[in-house]
Design brief:
Layout: H1 6-27, H2 33-38, H3 48-80, H4 96-101, H5 109-118
Helix pairs in contact: 1-3
């Protein structure tokens, strides 16, 4: 796909807006993890283990969504700095196919594979 690089900014902004809408819809608004945990009470129908499991799932979802928002924010900052589309490790241009698949990509495929192997 021959997507002009300028269109990725619009896509990043769109994905960011969709994620924020999803968070607001699923949580009834953007609230903190502490507030989310505080509103979850044990009642006659829930066992303590169920409540703990549900809280853990909600915390994991929040952490995942926060990481996703952070990746999108970082990509937009790289865009503003003129560094979007270039590998943060080797400075090579990230292939368009990779950006099409994952617009917030930090690294080219080679550097990403090396990063994942090391971590």
């Amino acid at each position: 796909m021959n997507t002009p690089i300028r269109l990725y900014r619009d896509r990043l902004l769109h994905e960011q807006a969709q994620l924020l809408e999803r968070i607001a819809f699923e949580r009834g608004g953007v609230i903190s993890q502490a507030a989310m945990a505080a509103k979850k009470d044990v009642n006659d129908f829930d066992t303590h283990a169920q409540v703990i499991t549900e809280r853990d799932i909600e915390f994991a979802m929040s952490a995942h969504e926060a990481a996703e928002l952070n990746e999108l924010d970082n990509a937009l900052q790289r865009w503003d700095a003129g560094r979007y589309g270039f590998c943060t490790d080797c400075a090579a241009a990230i292939p368009v196919a990779r950006l099409d698949a994952y617009p917030a990509a930090l690294r080219c495929v080679t550097c990403q594979e090396a990063f994942e192997t090391a971590h």
